[in-house]
Structures are given as C-alpha cells and as structure tokens.
From TrEMBL, chain A:
It is a multi-pass membrane protein. It is found in: Cell membrane. The lineage of its organism: Bacteria, Bacillati, Bacillota, Clostridia, Eubacteriales. It comes from Acetivibrio straminisolvens JCM 21531. Keywords: Cell membrane, Cell shape, Membrane, Transmembrane, Transmembrane helix. This is Rod shape-determining protein MreD. The chain crosses the membrane at residues 6-29, 36-58, 70-88.
Automatic annotation (TrEMBL), chain B:
It comes from Acetivibrio straminisolvens JCM 21531. GO terms for cellular component: plasma membrane. The keyword Calcium does not apply. This is Cell shape-determining protein MreC. The lineage of its organism: Bacteria, Bacillati, Bacillota, Clostridia, Eubacteriales. GO terms for biological process: regulation of cell shape. Pfam families: MreC (PF04085). Residues 121-271 form the Rod shape-determining protein MreC beta-barrel core domain. The keyword Cytoplasm does not apply.
Length: 111, 284
C-alpha cells in the first residue's frame, strides 16, 4: 500500500512536470494531449472505485494548482471521471490495451 | 449495504466541499488560492530547468539553420541602421520639443510611475478549458494581482493570481477577459473580449460597435486606460474582419492580437512603483 502511494505520487509529479512544460507545444486539432487524464483513466480501469476516485481527485487538484482558474474545478471533474470509469471497469476486459485507449478517447475532452 | 451508503455519503460530502471551495476561490484575492504554493514552489525549479534545456536545444538547431539567412539580414540591417540614425537625430529634436510642450501642458505620463518587470513563461495551460500560463516571477519579486502583462508587440493579459515564486497570467483571448479599448483612428470606445470559438485560432472579438461607428479592416485597437487595470495606449491588435450578427442590428469585429500567443516566451509585467515598495504586503 505504501509503495503504491509513493509510486503514484512520483508518477503524478513527473507527469505534471511534463504536462506543464513540453506538452504545451503539441496539440492535435486544437486539443492538447493530457497525460494526467490518461493516468486517471488507467488507474480507474485497473483499480477499484475508491482508488479511481482518489487518483482522479489528486490529479485534478494538481492541475488546478498548476494552471487552473479556480481551485477545485479540475479536482471535481477528475473525481467523477475516476469514479465513472472505475464503475464501468468490471464490465470491460481491462487487460486489453485497446479498451484503455478507447476509454481515454471517450473522455478526452472532459478535462 | 451500509458500506455503500457510507461511500455515497462520503462522495456527497466531498462534492459539496469541493463546490464550496470553488465558490470561495472564484473570488478575487481569496486565500484558498495560496494552496497552489505547495506545488508551484516545488515544481518551479524543475519547470525552469526543462525550459532552459528546451531553449538550448532549439537555439542550437536554429544556429545551424540560420547562419546563411543571418548574413543577408545583417547586410540589410546595417543599411537600415544608417537610415535610422538619420531619423533618430531628427526625432531627438522633436523629443526635446515634446518634453517642453508637455511640461507646459502638465500632462501626466501614465508610464512614468510604472516599472517593467521581465519574466519568462515557464508553464502553459495544461487543460483545454482556460488560456492561462505561468511566469517565473511571484510575490517575492513584487508581482501583484491585476497587473497588466505585455510584450514589446502589445498587450498579453493580466495577472490573475500570484504565488510565492510564480504567478498565473490570463490572456486577452480567454473568454473570461474583457479589455476596455479604443479604436486608434476614431477614438471610439469598444470592448475586446475573448471568445470560446476564436481563442483556438488566437483571435478575440470586439464588441460594443455602434451602428454609426466607422470601423474597417486593418484599424489598430489600443487600450483605453479606463477600468484601471491596463494603462492607456498599449496596442492590442488589428481588426481582421467586421461581421454582422444574424439579427442585423449590431456588428462585431474579429481582432488579430499584435502578440502571437503560440510563440510567447518572455513577457513584461507592469508594476506600479508605489506598490513595489511594499513587496508582498496585502496583495493576495
């Protein structure tokens, strides 16, 4: 459990760093790729719904702190996104990479 | 069953709590926003490092590319310098004259009590909802909320929140931004606003065009100085297109900002000199 928390924290830190610097200059059809979103979806697909919600919330909060207009906006979006994805993950064959890709695309514009 | 109920209850509480926090942090200068310091202070050096590396790589690649072009440009520029030097001589005469006349008229110079603080952009907006970027100056450098941000080309935006070592800038193309402006040619008052559809192309729109107003493509738009945030006379951009709404009653125009928001790297923050003296006091 402790290992999990630490590795998630490091992962979020690195992703936030890359997201806020390098990825700003890449955009596809005016939509920027969002690594934090991908992290939320993958965590929610592989874990249970508490994990999905908490990771979603923390990723959202990170984004709020770094570039949001208000504190809490992305956090709320992330919380429900993580929760939503983790509720449907029982019906999906989650080891399949394609499922993760499609799910990410489906939620792409929400954050 | 009880567990499910419990979880639902937690979810509801968290949601309500977040909504309250959003409500609190929407207010200007609210204390809630200082939470960001936790992350921005830690991330700031890393972001600067990555940007530094990025600049270096870009610089090296450009250096090899540009040698030929630079040689030609150098020649052209030398010729231009000669021309300009002639002009400078003439203009300095005018400047002296202008100074005398101004003193005679006692005109208040808006820029005389303003300090230009240079800043680098260290992070761009991460999501697709806002048009916000982060600069590497914060409260400790004397940045205050609502200061105007410009480049040498024109207006960029204003500071929406200042952290300890970094601050967030909202650009004029964000739909939350409204600038009181003037048409340089006719001195008519207008509003420049961000627009949800236009901001992706780096454009903004101009409202408040009266039916009898004379506005044409190519007109320059500058800040009016009303409202107190932006000083007077900063170039915003040029009119790109004048459109008519379907109701046929009012017109609006598309503005092409003088600043290229996709290629911003360095900006200047305009800070009041009086405020600079009491750095960090009560500007949150």
């Amino acid at each position: 459990m402790r290992v999990k928390i630490v590795s998630y924290a490091v992962l979020i830190f690195i992703i936030a760093l890359i997201q806020s610097t390098v990825l700003g200059s890449i955009s596809v059809f005016n939509v920027k790729p969002n690594l934090l979103l991908i992290l939320i979806v993958s965590a929610a697909l592989l874990g249970n719904n508490v994990e999905g919600a908490v990771i979603g919330f923390i990723c959202g909060l990170t984004q709020d702190m770094l570039s949001g207009r208000v504190i809490g906006f992305y956090a709320l979006l992330g919380l429900y996104l993580g929760l939503g994805v983790s509720f449907i993950n029982k019906r999906l064959y989650k080891e399949n990479v394609l499922v993760a890709i499609i799910t990410t695309f489906f939620f792409f514009d929400s954050i | 069953m009880r567990l499910v109920k419990n979880k639902l209850f937690i979810l509801l509480t968290v949601t309500v709590a977040i909504l309250i926090i959003i409500g609190l942090s929407v207010r200007k200068n609210s204390k809630v926003n200082s939470v960001s310091n936790v992350l921005t202070v830690v991330l700031n050096p890393f972001q600067e490092f990555i940007n530094y590396i990025g600049d270096r790589i870009e610089g090296a690649a450009k250096y090899l590319e540009d040698i030929e072009a630079l040689n030609q440009e150098n020649e052209a520029l030398k010729a231009r310098i000669n021309e300009l030097e002639k002009e400078v001589k003439e203009l300095s005469d005018y400047r002296e004259k202008n100074k005398e006349l101004k003193e005679a008229l006692n005109i208040k110079d808006q820029f005389s009590d303003v300090e230009f603080l240079g800043a680098n952009i260290i992070a761009k907006d991460m999501g697709n909802w806002f048009n916000i970027f982060t600069i590497d100056r914060g409260i400790t450098d004397g940045i205050t909320v609502d200061s105007a941000v410009i480049t040498k080309d024109g207006l960029v935006g204003r500071i929406i929140s200042a952290d300890l070592v970094s601050s967030k800038v909202i650009t004029i193309i964000d739909e939350d931004s409204t600038v009181s402006a003037r048409v340089s040619k006719t001195r008519d008052l207008v509003f420049v606003k961000g627009d949800l559809q236009l901001k992706n192309q780096g454009l903004c729109r101009l409202d408040n065009i009266f039916p009898d107003m004379d506005i044409a493509v190519g007109d320059t738009i500058e800040t009016s100085g009303l409202g107190g945030i932006y000083p007077k006379g900063i170039i915003i951009g040029k009119v790109k297109e004048v459109r008519r709404k379907s109701s046929d009653l009012s017109r609006y125009a598309i503005i092409e900002p003088a600043v290229d928001f996709k290629r911003l790297e360095e900006v200047f923050v305009l800070e009041n000199k009086d405020k600079l003296k009491k750095v960090g006091e009560g500007n949150r």
